[in-house]
Amino acid sequence: MKKIIIITGANRGLGKALVDIALKDEDAIIVSFSRSLHNEHNHISKTKLIFIKTDLSESFSASIFEIIDKKLASNATLYFFNNASIILPIDKIGRFKEMDIEMSIKVNVQYPVNLINSLLNKFPNNKIILVNISSGAGNNPIPFWSLYGAAKAYMKLFFRTLEEENKDNNKIKLYSIDPGVLDTGMQENIRDNAFPNQDYFRSLKEDNKLIKPEDAALKIFLEINYYI
């Protein structure tokens, strides 16, 4: 195959929408790093959509790439979408439980950093496109969103540093893309948890101002110059 597209959190929301678009490309294999496979994807051939059961809150293992290594030709392009993230816990600093802090850091920072580090180490001869799904929460402080916002800021700077380190390497291309406020399960979490700006986010839903995941996914593919 000419392209292998790896997506974390591919079983719902934006991740699922990214998979739906990628499936239209006959020259691509899609790899889902998720806890489960979306029901709509159960009928897809396992040679087209490879599901690797993955819990980002657990320890990272480079063995996750074994099946990709077997299918990856030397001239193939690897795409990685760092999509999966959690916003919970939404709370004031000083009230977090240690296990909640640990979970947030593992899912939002530790696992994706390990994954990207291993990806670059194992496939140095392939062209690699890395796409970080960013958020405005990583630019400005939002009360009660400290863990999520700090993680998004971390990944944004991590990608900027990675880009600087590879500015003379034409095999690596990086993007950090903020898709906007999406109509996903994360927004349900936001509306269900009390914090100072909660009314604003509730109004986005009530006024139909949330972005559909499929629209955001299409825009992302266009932004990285991926045309099907």
Structural description of this entry:
- This protein is an alpha/beta fold.
- The protein has a single domain, classed as NAD(P)-binding Rossmann-like Domain (Rossmann fold), CATH 3.40.50.720.
- It has 7 helices and 6 strands, in the order βαββαβαβαβααα.
- The chain has a 6-stranded parallel beta sheet with strand order 3-2-1-4-5-6, sandwiched between helices.
- Helix 3 (98-122) runs parallel beside helix 4.
- The longest helix is centred in the middle third of the chain and has 25 residues, at 98-122.
- The chain is globular and about 50 Å long.
- The mean pLDDT is 94.
What does the largest sheet look like?
A: 6 strands, parallel
Whole-number count of domains: 1
Shape: globular
Low-pLDDT parts are none
What is the CATH H-level superfamily? NAD(P)-binding Rossmann-like Domain
* Fraction of residues in β-strands: 15-25%
- Radius of gyration in whole Å, from Cα? 17 Å
CATH architecture: 3-Layer(aba) Sandwich
Tell me the span between the first and last alpha carbons: 15 Å
How much is the average pLDDT? 94
Q: Which CATH class?
A: Alpha Beta
- In total, the number of strands is 6
Order of helices and strands: EHEEHEHEHEHHH
What's the short version?
By secondary structure, the protein is α/β, with parallel strands linked by helices.
Blueprint of the fold:
Layout: E1 3-8, H1 13-22, E2 28-34, E3 49-53, H2 66-71, E4 77-82, H3 98-122, E5 127-133, H4 146-165, E6 172-177, H5 185-192, H6 198-206, H7 213-223
Parallel strand pairs: 1-2, 1-4, 2-3, 4-5, 5-6
Main location: cytoplasm
Pfam family, one: adh_short
GO molecular function, one term: sepiapterin reductase (NADP+) activity
